[in-house]
């Protein structure tokens, strides 16, 4: 039997902007450290994403000492975002059905993004004082909260599942369309659907809470924001269940600690996989 290992780890410090590949990361109650701790909102304090603003792909991030550098590919301008930037007011922001307290980030970030996007937007950071609770059905002893992720804290996909998508499309698929946090090296496509619990390395355990339902976001080319409807259509031919299309599994931390590239993974399978 082939070994299961961590192939890639990716964080997305600002929701719906570019991701950063890292070699190791801490797993915290709301997910991977630094992942989706910031979010852009519109004039009504509603979150914005690539679903409605695919041009957000123009913003790429790179790790820097003490924070991140945000690069606007359209203008080649950059701006540094620290882990703990200067905060302004604490306000309620909306992400899907959740209303969450968050801090506006000062240091002219809202001005910077507003000028780039041609729309009044503001940048907020998730508050450590007011957490975002998850559905009690997915609670573990160590994690009852999430970040600004769409739903649960950690999204895992496998190499074999991406290879399966390549075969459907007859061309290599850019995995960034699916915005995973962890990619696993394996041989069997979609076996992650059956993982009830996994251990990564010596410290971290994750609960395989539910499969990830997909939308038109996977049609968005992460290089230029253009859309290709064939991606979601191809996936729906084999991965559709009760009018939803699935790819990847959402996980919740059971125990906390560090994970790194090449960590071995052990699994406990579920009995109720939908596929």
The first-level CATH class name: Mainly Beta
CATH-defined superfamily: PK beta-barrel domain-like
Largest sheet: 9 strands, mixed
Q: Return the average pLDDT rounded to an integer.
A: 95
**What letter string, H or E per element, gives the SSE order?**
EEEEEEEEEEHEEEEHEEEHEEEE
Shape: globular
What is the terminal separation in angstroms?
A: 22 Å
Give the low-pLDDT segments.
Answer: none
Number of beta-strand segments: 21
Q: How many structural domains does the protein architecture include?
A: 1
Percent strand:
35-45%
- Provide the gyration radius in Å: 18 Å
Question: What's the short version?
Answer:
This protein has 275 residues and is mostly beta strands.
Structure commentary:
The protein has one domain (5-269): PK beta-barrel domain-like (M1 Pyruvate Kinase, Domain 3). 11% of the residues lie in helices and 41% in strands. It has helices spanning 109-117, 159-169, 230-239, and strands spanning 5-11, 20-22, 24-28, 31-32, 38-41, 59-64, 67-72, 77-82, 87-95, 98-105, 122-126, 132-133, 145-146, 154-158, 182-185, 195-200, 204-214, 240-241, 244-255, 257-260, 265-269. It starts with a strand and ends in a 6-residue tail after the last strand. The longest helix has 11 residues, at 159-169. The strands form five sheets. Strands 1, 2, 14, 15, 16, 17, 18, 19 and 21 form a nine-stranded mixed β-sheet that branches. A four-stranded antiparallel β-sheet has the order 5-11-10-9.
């Amino acid at each position: 039997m082939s070994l299961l290992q961590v192939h890639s780890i990716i964080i997305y410090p600002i929701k719906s902007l570019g991701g950063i590949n890292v070699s190791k990361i801490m797993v915290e109650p709301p997910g991977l450290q630094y992942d989706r701790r910031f979010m852009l909102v519109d004039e009504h304090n509603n979150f914005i994403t690539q679903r409605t603003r695919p041009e957000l792909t123009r913003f790429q991030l790179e790790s820097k000492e003490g924070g991140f550098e945000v690069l606007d590919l359209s203008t080649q301008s950059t701006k540094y975002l620290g882990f703990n930037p200067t905060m302004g007011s604490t306000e309620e922001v909306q992400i899907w059905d959740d209303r969450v307290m968050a801090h506006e980030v000062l240091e002219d970030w809202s001005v910077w993004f507003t000028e780039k996007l041609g729309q009044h937007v503001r940048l907020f950071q998730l508050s450590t004082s007011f957490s975002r609770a998850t559905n009690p059905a997915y609670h573990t002893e160590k994690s009852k909260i999430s970040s600004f992720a769409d739903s649960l804290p950690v999204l895992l996909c496998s190499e074999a599942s991406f290879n399966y998508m390549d075969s459907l499309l007859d061309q290599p698929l850019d995995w960034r369309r699916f915005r995973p946090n962890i990619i696993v090296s394996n041989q069997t496509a979609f076996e992650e659907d059956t993982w009830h619990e996994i251990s990564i390395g010596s410290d971290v355990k994750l609960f395989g809470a539910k499969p990830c339902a997909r939308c038109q976001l996977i049609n968005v080319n992460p290089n230029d924001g253009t859309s290709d409807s064939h991606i979601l259509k191809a996936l729906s031919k084999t991965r559709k269940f009760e009018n939803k299309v699935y790819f990847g599994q959402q996980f919740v931390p059971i125990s906390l600690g560090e994970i790194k590239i090449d960590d071995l993974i052990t699994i406990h399978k579920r009995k109720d996989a939908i596929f």
